[in-house]
Amino acid sequence: MRILNTQNNFLVTSAYAYSNDLFGIRQSPFESATKQLHAKGIGANFVTCFQAVRYNDLRFTTSPDNQRRKIMTEPNLIDPRTLYHNDKFPQQEQDTPALQQKMQPKPDCGEESYRGHDRLLNRRVLITGGDSGIGRAVAIAFAREGADIALQFFPGEEADAQEVAALIEDAGRRVILLPFDLRDAAAPKEIISQTLTGLGGLDTLVLNAAQQISEVSLADTPLVQIHDTFKVNILSMFALVQAALPRLQPGSAILTTTSVQAFDPSAHLLDYAATKAAIANFTVGLAKQLAEKGIRVNGVAPGPIWTPLQLDHGQQPGALPEFGQESLLGRAGQPAELAPVYVFLASNEASYVTAQIYGVTGGEAINL
What we know:
Layout: H1 8-22, H2 33-39, H3 43-53, E1 60-62, E2 68-70, E3 124-128, H4 133-144, E4 148-153, H5 158-170, E5 175-179, H6 187-199, E6 204-207, H7 223-244, E7 253-257, H8 270-290, E8 296-302, H9 339-346, E9 356-360
Parallel strand pairs: 3-4, 3-6, 4-5, 6-7, 7-8, 8-9
Antiparallel strand pairs: 1-2
Helix pairs in contact: 1-3, 4-5, 4-9, 6-7, 7-8
């Protein structure tokens, strides 16, 4: 790589700092560097340099006198085992619906850490289950990347939803709140209608809402619970996509949240795991159907993530302290660790990515 400028050290260091910051998880001490570079008229060199260091590995530059020298930069390494809470969680329960604001410790959804770079500028996005957990992290990240958000949540979760709405507005983006119960067959069509009216269109769907109730025995699982789990987790996806399709243009994206449970089901989550397997299948099949329209469809398969879902009968009594301890990294994941994957899949950077399921599992493999 040749940098035709006498300010090589500053240029490379600035590009390195920018690349560290690009994916929105750490602030950089050089946050004004890019403005300084453009002010000095060396933006093109910055782009070249950024391409060399965007993956944070050490590179060499070739100076004008063809002398090679190493860029002496501290590697930005973080131990994934200790990055977030890695002790046992305190045993706790909540009445339905469980609220994130009452959890101890509170999940990290990127409220303090995520920084955007206009990767989703002016996108109009519907997020289901957007008040807490993974949906909240995605809403925060998308808003800070420049998107306007329609936020579906279940009635009774308004306190969490209002917190997210405030964060979206703080990012300078529009937000509309949609309190709908996805067990209601009429809800999906009304959600899409209000999204189109409130945002003026729709470019991206993040189908994330879910119900998870732990039951030891199928014999003791109420049939109405099984029906409700399928209605919320998978049947609503069919209905939402059906209602949205006439308004989706080439370049639009549909993202689903499946689960590691789709590939390695737990005995006590039989109905939930079955819906997540259906979602994975739905995602790949829909991608094949919509490719000719220029619409990409991808899914994310989380592992054990610390969200209100776990407190709302999502785990067996007494099991919460051990939640996530069995992962290869020895801890549960945080919603903030998934948001960058959703951002990538929704963005133009993923223009050649469709019909894929991305695992964020703490180490467990997924296989369709």
